[in-house]
């Protein structure tokens, strides 16, 4: 293994084309520098320099070593700064997970955009999945932070931070009888009608939230179709198969053949969003995300 100090000495000799001048540049005596060069040649079993009456000339092997030495030194000089950046959370990777319905809310892309602007050298890995899988990913430290529609279960050592409450609204086929209803629809008024819902396996938190709102209003929804994704349920609604209760942000993604109306009930119809994470000593990138997230919490 070649000592980095020997490489620095060799670079000086090559660039000065003279051992005496290189010794002055390195603030050392000529004999020790000469021994270093000879030692390099012995280590590599190659002639690196040709001694001339007034200086030295680099051999082909010496030129190859010179280029490699420059690369090694540049990398070595960059190590302290990179280590410092990592320790300060200015480089590395942050892993963020979210459910499908959370990913449709504008707060998430705004958070990601602000993070990229503040920490451009930190890469962001995103993962969309169901809430159970995402919670496992936090426990197993695959993700640093996840966004769900309900707090994490207690007893798992996870922190749940309430980010916002998103209103739930009703999505109706444009030929539905309730389209002509007054602007705000009472949740109980939906009882007679067929429902299309986002499949529970894929969106457990939102599914359970909607059912809980209906139960609290005094009825159990008649579900005639479940969709694999929240956005795909809109196709079924537009086809007239049924109505649905959706987060307010969904209205920005589809308005053809669908009419959206606000909901009202004795208990507020909302779909909250929570940030869930595990407390980590030294996870500075997570701390940066949480600092930015605080600006979205009112």
TrEMBL record:
Keyword presence, Transcription regulation: yes
HTH lysR-type domain span: 2-59
Superkingdom assignment: Bacteria
Cellular component terms (Gene Ontology): protein-DNA complex
Keyword list, A-Z: DNA-binding, Transcription, Transcription regulation
Cell inner membrane found in the keyword field: no
GO MF entries: DNA binding; DNA-binding transcription factor activity
SUPFAM superfamilies for this protein: Periplasmic binding protein-like II (SSF53850), Winged helix' DNA-binding domain (SSF46785)
Family: Belongs to the LysR transcriptional regulatory family.
Name assigned to this protein: Hca operon transcriptional activator
Gene of this entry: hcaR_2
């Amino acid at each position: 293994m070649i000592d980095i100090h020997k490489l620095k000495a060799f670079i000086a000799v090559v660039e000065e084309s003279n051992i005496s001048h290189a010794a002055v540049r390195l603030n050392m005596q000529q004999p020790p520098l000469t021994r270093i060069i000879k030692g390099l040649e012995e280590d590599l079993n190659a002639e690196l320099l040709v001694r001339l009456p007034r200086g030295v000339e680099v051999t082909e092997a010496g030129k190859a070593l010179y280029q490699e030495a420059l690369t090694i030194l540049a990398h070595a000089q960059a190590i302290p700064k990179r280590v410092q950046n990592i320790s300060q959370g200015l480089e590395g990777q942050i892993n963020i997970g979210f459910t499908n319905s959370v990913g449709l809310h504008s707060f998430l892309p705004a958070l990601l955009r602000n993070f990229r602007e503040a920490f451009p050298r930190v890469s962001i890995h995103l993962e969309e999945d169901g809430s159970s899988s995402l919670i496992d990913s936090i426990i197993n430290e695959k993700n640093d932070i996840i966004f769900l529609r309900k707090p994490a279960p207690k007893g798992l050592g996870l922190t749940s931070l309430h980010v916002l409450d998103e209103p739930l609204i009703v999505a109706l086929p444009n030929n539905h009888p309730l389209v002509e209803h007054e602007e705000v629809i009472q949740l109980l008024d939906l009882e007679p009608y067929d429902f299309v819902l986002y499949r529970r396996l894929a969106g457990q938190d939102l599914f359970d939230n909607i059912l809980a709102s209906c139960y609290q209003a005094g009825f159990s929804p008649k579900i005639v179709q479940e969709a694999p994704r929240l956005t795909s349920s809109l196709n079924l609604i537009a086809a007239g198969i049924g109505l649905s209760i959706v987060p307010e942000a969904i209205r920005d993604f589809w308005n053809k053949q669908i009419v959206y109306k606000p909901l009202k009930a004795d208990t507020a119809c909302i779909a909250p969003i929570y940030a869930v994470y595990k407390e980590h000593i030294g996870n500075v990138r997570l701390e940066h995300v949480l600092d930015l997230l605080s600006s979205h919490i009112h």
